[in-house]
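Batch manifest, entry 17 of 40.
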Amino acid sequence: MKAVGYKKSLPIDSAEALIDFEAAKLEPKGHDICVAVRAISANPVDYKVRKRAAPPEGEFKILGYDAAGIVDAVGPEVTLFKPGDEVFYAGSILRQGTNSEFHLVDERIVGRKPKALSFAQAAGLPLTSITSWELLFDRLGAVPGKSVDPRTLLIIGGAGGVGSILVQLARRLTGLTVVATASRPESRKWCLDLGAHAVVDHATPLKEQIEKLKLPPVALVASLTNTDQHYKALADIMAPQGKYGLIDDPPDFNVAAFKGKSISVHWESMFTRSSFQTPDMIGQHHLLNDIADLVDKGVVKTTLGENFGTINAANLKRAHALLESGKSRGKIVLDGW
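Output type: structure tokens
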């Protein structure tokens, strides 16, 4: 089968940073399903893994976590899917990735593809939807339902992949006031169109901008990018006894900044359930089905920003380069072989 991978961790402008190659198609066992991949999306985790995780000598590592496709075959313990089902999911960080014609994934982290979306549109949703849902409801403890919530949620990096879903979920499923940050006019408009009540510029001091809005207290913060640059200022802005959630890997982060206000700090990694085979691992199957229902009902829309065309090394290198620049908006998707 066709696949894209790498043998050495190299800068993205290197000729061998990502390579087209032929790989063996594997048969599903246990709870695994084999998916004929129709579309994928690229995420920051892809280039982060590429930079720091070289495969064993002479072997290829295949990246990619988001995928949408059709079930080709199922393992003997599979009960949730059958061949021919259309699915979408974000795979495990411990296994070979989705940048291949066929991919093995545990059924318990797979959901049914939204009927209203194409494979390309659906491929942009799984990783960011799971991250956003878990961060908002499981880590920050937001309450689903449209009852009035006298608090503000501040989303740092609202126009990125996770932010684009988080804005929608928070605005449409909770009573929170939703404020996103964005530094460019097109990113600002993107956030407002997705439902943010207001947008502030993270390239300039946040406190004065927040105070001018005269909104409910900032009790919840979702720090999605550049946490090391903003967390001290956010500790000053946040209400006492608030909750601060983050998903990135800040080189500098001192939780003591939050002690005086008794602000709790929460990490979110959507790979935790699959990496540790947690008892609630199937929760991601149910979560993705809920997202599919919300999409089909018109509550949540795809966050596809750009389609980079056919899945191959050249196009994936362009996707990685844009993600590394920090200037992407929404999700970068590739589809077809």
